[in-house]
Amino acid sequence: LQERAILDINSAQFTDDLEKARVKYLGKKGELTEVLRGMGSLSAEERPLVGKVANEVREEIEAHLEKAKTLIKAKEMNKKLETESIDVTMPGKDIVLGKRHPLTQGMDELKDIFISMGFKVAEGPEVETVYYNFDALNAAPNHPSRDMTDTFYINDDVILRPQTSPVQVRYMEKTKPPIRIISPGRCFRNDTPDATHSPMFHQLEGLVVDKGITLADLKGTLEVFVKKFLGEHTQIKFRPHFFPFTEPSAEVDATCFKCGGSGCGFCKKSGWIELLGAGMVHPNVLRNCGIDPEVYSGFAFGMGVDRLVMLKYGIDDIRLLYENDMRFLNQF
Ligand code: FA5
């Protein structure tokens, strides 16, 4: 039995074979175990003799098992090292790092500029009421922007906000002047998508209310902003316009950052590009918010963030900002 066991052990190739051999001889139903179990039927004189021999055989088998195990383990380890070795001279795998979307980058830059000028950031809901978006902002009952073709209505009183201006009203209702806030966020309009229109886009609203605020403060603020955002050499001009919530109102243009104002294809030869809407807060709006227009005055402006980002980075189609094409996004 001992000889057979040793032969089995020595011919084992893998740890599995060794285990099989162990079970075959020393396991619960193993051959040597059977011998020990059969000892009950032996005479009192034979029992110690056979017991001694059986124990010696077991020790011998165990010693061989142990030796073979060490050998096989070493062999297996060597093989593993050979086949699984790492070639440290091979080039490593690229680590793909995410980055901020160009719109987020632009929005962060805009916010930083205004925060550095002392503005606080205020937020308002994207699902807005007709009251805050139109009535409180002095929009006439028949103002065209109330029309279903421009604004997404959820019901008669609730809309998706088409501008960030309602945040002005929400803020002025709660906070007394001096007020100096910006309110960036998403807006929604029932516009057909094209190169410059997206049904969902972003605006950044600005509002300053205090004693003695004038159009000169608006101009100065926007000049500092435009130079920081588009470059020191950029000039702005005010064009008369109409918004229900400001009086006077203006659209503000900047000198084309491609040609510097001399006229090129980008600015349709005019030398100017449209930047934002602005004006002095209408006395009715101040009154609607419980602020006395005899004591306080203010200015407000609202810019399309998507369009500003497009200008700054030379993006010629707004839809690129929403398609999540990595070939486009990786350029920023
Ligand atoms: C307004 O929304 C006013 N609330 C701005 C304002 C605020 C004026 C405070 C005075 C005082 P307007 O409708 O012109 O104005 O929109 C402002 C900007 O939003 C536009 O110049 C444009 O850049 C952007 N915009 C409007 N519709 C879209 C659209 N569908 N896709 C992308 N940008 C848009």
Description:
It is found in: Cytoplasm. Belongs to the class-II aminoacyl-tRNA synthetase family. Phe-tRNA synthetase alpha subunit type 1 subfamily. GO terms for molecular function: ATP binding; catalytic activity, acting on a protein; magnesium ion binding; phenylalanine-tRNA ligase activity; transferase activity; tRNA binding. Its EC number is 6.1.1.20. The chain is α+β, with helices and mostly antiparallel strands and 332 residues long. It has helices spanning 2-10, 15-26, 31-37, 46-83, 102-116, 130-135, 166-174, 215-230, 283-288, 305-313, 326-329; strands at residues 120-121, 127-129, 158-160, 179-188, 200-210, 236-243, 246-255, 272-281, 297-304. The strands form 2 sheets. It has a 7-stranded mixed sheet with strand order 1-4-5-9-8-7-6, with helices on both faces. It has a two-stranded antiparallel sheet with strand order 2-3. Helix 1 packs parallel to helix 4 and helix 2 packs antiparallel against helix 4 (46-83). The radius of gyration is 41 Å and the shape is elongated. The mean pLDDT is 92. Adenosine-5'-[phenylalaninyl-phosphate] binds at residues 163, 165, 189, 191, 197-198, 201, 203, 205, 243, 246, 276-279, 300-302, 304, 306-307, 318.
